Amino acid sequence: MSPESKPLPPENAGPEPQSADWEGFYRNYKKPGFIAGYEILQKLGGGVFGIVFKAKKQSINKAYAIKFLKVDDPGIQKQVLSELETVGLFAQVDHPNLVSIEDKGLVGGIPYIIMGYAGDETLKSRLQEGPMSEVEVIALFSQICKGVKALHDHSLVHFDLKPANIFLKGDVARVGDYGLSKLVSETRVSLSFGRGTPYYMAPEMLKRKGDFRSDIYSLGIILYECLCGEPPFKGENEWEVLKGHETGELHFPNSLDPHWKSLLGRMLAKEPEDRPQDLGEVLSCLPCGNSPLLGSGPVASPGPAAPPLPPSPPPLAGQQLATQDRPRRTGTVLGILFRSFLLSIVLPFRIVGFTLAAFVKHFSRLIRGTFSALGVVAVIGFWILVVLLLMQVFLVGFSIF
User: Which fold has domain 120-297?
Assistant: First the structure.
């Protein structure tokens, strides 16, 4: 029989710690009903504080992620169970760059949290593919900061920020895995359990202290790794890494732009008081923001477009006449004279032609007729009229030309 899962008891009843039955967990977690209403499909990952599985909610056939917390010590478990009572506060934080928190419970003495499923790809797997461009770093890191800022605005601290807890789906980044998140006040508090992942853990957490600025330090480590390809502090074991966080000197590649060095230097300050005091300040220091820290300032937006050139002024009246009317008028006069000259030459010949045709026609009739006196007088009169008409035509043509 698989252990029965049940919701946590009401806060006023006070949760009672149980011994975590991990042997029973690994034996039964794939069985239907291990978590009521869910079917566990596959393991997504794990760390110091828990193991994450992909699961399906059977009633709606929708994918979710379930994290089982590793807390074996009864005293620490009681603190964790108490903290899990505040998971409803996480559910109230609705932000596009946060993985949603759906529910919590206890099974076989092991606390669990049910979260929205944000995909299989993480920032960790993206970094393993090779260097990221500065444009991609800015786009993703600004989303990560906005998601964590939404937690901080609700007085919630993540405490375990790392690339493996940042889920990517296309160009969208979502912060998830609130296994160490804890409701805190704005003053530094003593952590009741655990530490963050060594590569991304703030120095004050070695002293079991931490607050919002611990998340800012972890985000600085993530930003450093995105820009430089590896974390700033490494070692043969986790203690050497932790010592680097506490006392190690921060070094930057020579190729890193000065404005990134300035921002990272503040985010990775050993003392929380020397870091940016909220993520709004960090966001304003990114190249796309208005930042006094960046020597070059924000990226300049393109200025207004240059006004269009004014239209060419209309030509003056005199100029218009000189360029248009004068050639037209000159052409008109020359055309009239040329046509008159042709008319003076052609018209007389056409008249003579018509006259000769008429003469031949009438002369033939006279030949066939009698040579009467009347016919002779008519012929002489006809020719006198022809001569007078020709003289008139020549005079008219000459006067026109």
Answer: Transferase(Phosphotransferase); domain 1 (1.10.510)
